[in-house]
Amino acid sequence: MVFRSNIWPEYLFPSPLGVLQNLDSGFRDGSLFIAIGISIKRVLTGYMISLTAGLTLGLLIIRFSYLDETLSPLLLGFQTLPSICWLPLAILWFGIGEDSIIFVIAIGSIFSISIATLSGIKNVPPIYMRVAKTMGAKGLKAYTTVVIPAALPAIISGMKQGWSFAWRALMAGELLSPKDGLGYALTIGRDLHDMNQVVGVMIIIIFIGLVVDNLIFGKLEYSIRYRWGLTQT
Amino acid sequence: MLKIEGVNKVFTNNYAAANTLDNVDLTVVDGEFVSLVGPSGCGKSTLLNIIAGLERASGGRVLKKGTEIKDAGPDRVVMFQEAALFPWLKVLDNVEYGMKIAGMPKQKRKEKAWHYLKMVHLTRFASSYPHELSGGMRQRVALARALAMDSDILLMDEPFASLDSQTRSILHTELQQIWRTTGKTIVFVTHNVEEAVLLADRVVVMTANPGRIKKEFRVQLARPRDLENVDLAFVVSQIMQELKEEVEKVAKAEYDSDWSLEKSTFLPSPNNNMGNGI
């Protein structure tokens, strides 16, 4: 409708048909598949790094209270920093290329994951620990059998948030330090003034983000909420 | 044998120090069922927590078979007012939890968990999650979980306080039977005197501020007991007499100064117009 009204020229506002055609040809010659594959590989690598680092950081901070006092405000501060702000630093450290993108992805999601881990563990009802103690669970055993399962819902939602941060950071990284990937496809579209491609890639990005959010994290969250009796029946 | 020797507990905050427990001595014989009753704030739960090892006494010591209690342990299982089941585990896994921590082989602990679930009549719900059970059922699972630890001492901190009275009376019967068959030593904290007399061999009345033991009553009634029994009602009224003073003392401290327990012996009806408008 907006397109038909001819307010803007076609190179500024593409027709839906043109976008679809562009997506079709992109999928047909495989270039979009390659871009998607590369982007997903990057985000998975970065996300895995941030998951390991974020969880470890969260657990370490819980374990040592002086870390909590010193690092928690810092974490919060870092979390408010948009991940794209890390890019100049990443480029200077790792050069333009794969490493700097993965670094930005990881750093973009580490903090939300570790903060969620932290608050999840802090909010475990103390009665569970008392029960575990009288049942003879101590130290690491109490940690793995009680504290972590009890904090899991919070940790999962932190992971979900971390994922969306990672996905955004990936795009930022690919836009600014490009060789390939979906962000690069966007840049190419801009350079060639190919509005169809720009919008097409944007749709793909939204689609992938939604699919991962709903299918993976949605299922995970639902199953946990069901176990805990938080769903309405 | 459980021996409590001169246990003190002082809680301090910025303004004052409260003498929650003051020189408490108590001996519990093996296989005995002891109830602690008292007004709120008399430190009965604190005493239980000290026996459990969840809290440390400020002075004095608790001996179990001659060794001093320093930490919480599976030989003194506690059952709390909330069931506190782990929501991420199924009922059967919840009952198995303590045995799993103790490193018991899988087959054996499963059998044992079934045995105790059967004892509380909940085998049908073995693979449910705790949120699918009613409050009374959850408390029964907690009881099965505590029993499955095979500890010789069971500590109960108002375990039935949050249940409705029907469920509670069913659980009273069950607990009496279970205590008979397992021969455990039970220390039972409650504010319900009827409950205490119904279940215990010995009822210990405590005072508040400072928390001391005021009097002990030996309940020598035939078992199984039930609440309608006249003898039981007599013992209850005796203990109530003792307790009333204490409750009033606590209430005086917590309520405004014009409060008195005797005031409400006559309740005037708001519709009573004393013959106005004849």
What do these coordinates show?
By secondary structure, chain A is mostly helical. Chain A has helices at 16-28, 31-63, 65-80, 87-94, 98-122, 126-134, 139-176, 182-191, 195-228. Chain A starts with 15 loop residues before the first helix and ends in a 5-residue tail after the last helix. The model of chain A has no long low-confidence stretch (mean pLDDT 82). By secondary structure, chain B is of the alpha/beta class. Chain B is 35% helix and 23% strand. In chain B, the strands form two sheets. A six-stranded mixed sheet of chain B has the order 6-7-8-3-9-10, with helices on both faces. In chain B, a hairpin with a 4-residue loop joins strand 1 and strand 2 (17-28). The model of chain B has no long low-confidence stretch (mean pLDDT 86). Chain A binds chain B through residues 127-128, 130-137, 141, 145-146, 149-150, 152, 224, 227-229, and chain B through 52-54, 72-74, 76-78, 80, 82, 84, 86-89, 97-98, 100-102, 129-132, 145, 149.
Defining key terms:
heterodimer, A: 233 residues, mainly alpha, MetI-like fold, 9 helices, 0% strand, B: 278 residues, alpha/beta, Rossmann fold, six-stranded mixed β-sheet, four-stranded antiparallel β-sheet, 7 helices, 10 strands, 35% helix, globular
The secondary-structure class of chain A comes to: mainly alpha
What spatial order of strands do you see in the largest sheet of chain B? Answer: 6-7-8-3-9-10
Mean pLDDT of chain A: 82
Q: Spans of chain B with pLDDT under 50 lasting ≥5 residues?
A: none
Number of domains of chain A: 1
Reading the helices and strands of chain B in chain order gives EEEHEEEHHHEHEHEEH
Please write the CATH class name of the domain at 1-75 and 188-251 in chain B: Alpha Beta
Return the string of H and E elements of chain A.
Answer: HHHHHHHHH
What's the helix count of chain A?
A: 9
